[in-house]
C-alpha cells in the first residue's frame, strides 16, 4: 500500500512524497511509514501516483513518477494554459522484506521518456515478463490540443532493461483519447483495462471503454464502450466470467460496478 502526503506553503503548489505502510495483523495499519522515499536526499523531487505490485517471487514493486521541485520554469506538473506535461521521470523500486526497506529509485531508459505519464502499476505476465502501461503526453509549451497515446514498456530482465511495445490500438484513434488506464491480470492470464474516454482537447467525455490483451501482452483488442460513466477505475476478475470495477465519477463519487 503506497500513498503520498501533500503539503502547501506560500508561493508553492502541492509537494508530494511517497511512503509505504504495512498491515499490522488484525490491529489495522501501522501509524507511521517504514521508509520515506524521495526525501531531501533525493534532490527535492516531487512524487505522484505511487502504486505497488505483489510479484510471484515475493518481491514488492513500487512504481511512481517524479518531477523536479517546482520553480518559475515549471511551477506545476501540468501547464495550466496548454495542459502540457512538465519534464517527468517514471521510477520504480522494490522491496524484498515485505516493504520494510526499499531500493533507491530507478529510472528506466527509453526514448521520449520525459513526456510520459504512468497511470498504472507494473503487471507480471504469465511468462514472468514485466509490463508497464504508459501514456505519451505533449510537452510543456506545446500548444496543440492534448493527444494521449497509450503504449507499454516491457522487461524480460526484471527491470534491468526495457523495450517499448507499439502503441495500443486506441492510440491510433484520432477521434478519441483513452487515458487513466489501469491494467490487471485476469485468472486465465489475459490483461484487462477500463479507460477514461474523451475527445481530443478533453472537451467531451464518453463511457469508460474496455480493452483486453492476450496473455502474451502483444495482442490487444480495440476499445469498446461499456455504458459506464467515469474517469478513474480499477478492475478485478471475480472468476466465472464476472468482472468488478471501482469507478470514480466526478471528483468525489465512487461507484462499485459488476458486469
Which secondary structure elements does this structure contain, and how are they paired or packed?
Elements: E1 2-9, E2 12-20, E3 35-37, E4 46-54, E5 60-67, E6 89-95, E7 116-117, E8 122-124, E9 130-136, E10 149-155, E11 163-164, E12 177-185, E13 191-198, E14 205-213, E15 224-225, E16 233-239, E17 242-249, E18 253-258
Antiparallel strand pairs: 1-2, 2-3, 4-5, 5-6, 7-9, 8-9, 9-10, 10-11, 12-13, 13-14, 14-15, 16-17, 17-18
Structure description:
- With 259 residues, the chain is mainly β.
- It contains no helices and 18 strands.
- The chain has strands spanning 2-9, 12-20, 35-37, 46-54, 60-67, 89-95, 116-117, 122-124, 130-136, 149-155, 163-164, 177-185, 191-198, 205-213, 224-225, 233-239, 242-249, 253-258.
- Strands 7, 8, 9, 10 and 11 form a five-stranded antiparallel β-sheet that branches.
- A hairpin with a 5-residue loop joins strand 8 and strand 9 (130-136).
- It is globular and about 45 Å long.
Outline:
This protein has strands spanning 2-9, 12-20, 35-37, 46-54, 60-67, 89-95, 116-117, 122-124, 130-136, 149-155, 163-164, 177-185, 191-198, 205-213, 224-225, 233-239, 242-249, 253-258. The chain has 259 residues and is mainly beta. β16 (233-239) and β17 form a beta hairpin.
Characteristics:
259 residues; four-stranded antiparallel sheet; mainly beta; 18 strands
